[in-house]
Structure formats: structure tokens, C-alpha cells
Amino acid sequence: MNPLQQTGKVILAGAGPGDPDLVTVKTAHYLQQADVVLTDRLVSELILQRYVRPSATIIEVGKQCRRGVSTPQQTINELMVQYASAGKLVVRLKGGDVAFFSNVLDELDSLLANGIPYEIVPGITAASGASAYAGIPLTARNHATAVRFLTCYQSAVLSDDYWKELATTTDTLVFYMSSETLDMLVSNLIRYGMEASMQLAVIEQATTSYQQVYTCGLYEYAEKFRSRSFLSPSLVIIGKVVALQRSFSWFQGSDLGEYYFKPLTSPVKSIHTHEQPKQYAGRA
Question: What is the pLDDT, as a whole number, of residue 269?
Fold first, then answer.
């Protein structure tokens, strides 16, 4: 007997940054076979409609930073183990890529501890999708030879010494989950002397039909965008490469001021299913 019929398997897969056409062929293949899909908030509903087979159980297990409505990581771990132990093929579907700020380590630890077979399928991360759809190469001759992926979702994430080092680099800086701390982020870079030629871009809801791109010089930020609220998810790019956006911008979404990825209202909810997810439905 095939041991997977007894144990099941978990596929940790990236869904890309939003555009349903950016899902990889391999992720689409697994979604068409999956018995259960555990999906993040930043996964397009169109992806679920297009690629997941109708008989599959789809369960929202999204997180929403600082909003108070999130699925606990422990619950996600338990769901993966529960369904895989029952012999199911489970796709743990994450927005973007599975390796960028995605809590994948917690999930891998849980699967390993419980003897659950797994596979990791990469996806297009938000930095790649956002920069491409905004017309901003992350590295470019005479602009930047390297790129850094960071997050600054709270003030204590980066030390003063690290801010000093960031302020002197010519690398492109890409900040995930940092639009709500953007005032502080820019102030720190200016305080430690980042050169005036550096440009800033905020890309709202990248690669979706609601994408908007806001750019300015770093030292113009206070005048143009200080205290502005950007719609989630927003990605921040800082560097000389941002200036290229004026020449190479090719995609413009509708400026409706609406959310493409709807904010969460309750944790762990089944979207459509032929079987209910036991005691986990509605669990806080």
C-alpha cells in the first residue's frame, strides 16, 4: 500500500503576490490534486476559484498584523498535522513565496516533529512581483548592484547600528510589512545621513487590479506622504533604482481606494467544503 494513503503529505506552496496568472505551474498542479487547502489572507480568491478542485476543503488561516484578527500559528500547525495524519494531501498556500517572512520555520518544525512528509514549492515573492509591475528593476547598472529584503513592522526590529549601516549603503532596500511604520523608517534613514539622491516607492496591492505606485525623493517624503495610510499589502522600495519607474512604468491599476485582499473579520473560516473542519471552525 502506498504509505501516503496512510500518512498524507503537506505541500508548502507560494501563491505569488496577487495576480492569479503568477501562480507557478507546480503550485497549480498541487492545488488541482489537494484534498485540503489552508490559505493565507494574501491569496487571491481568483486563485482558489481557478485552481482548486471543487471537492477540496478550503480553510482560511490568515494573519493580519496588529489587527487583532489572526489565526494562531499553533492552530495552523494542528490543522496541517490533523489532515495529513488522516491521509489527506494538504496544500499550505502562502501569499508570495514560502521563504520570505512567512513563518515557514514553525510549520516545518511541526511537520518534522510529527513525521509528516512535506514538499516546499517556491512562489514569486512580493518584492519581485511589485518591482516588476511597477517598472523598477531591483538591481541595475549604475544604480544598484545588490538588494536587501527587510521588515520594519515595529520600531525595535532594527538596531541603531543597523540603521546607520543601511543609511550608508547603495543597495536597494525592500521593506515588507512596513507601511505603517514608514514615517519612522524614513526618519531613521535621514537621521543617519542617507544620501539625498535616494528615491522611495510605496507599491500598494502589487500586481492586482488595484495596484497603485507612489514615489518621491527620500527627503520629500515628509511633505508628500507623512502619516498617509496605505492599503495592505504595501511594499516599500528605497534606492536609486526607484527613479527608473518614471521611464519603465507599464502597469496601472484602478484607483478605487478599495481592498483587493479583504481584511479578516474572524479567524479560521471554511470557504467552501464538502466536509467541515471539525472543531477548528471559528476557533480563536
Answer: 54
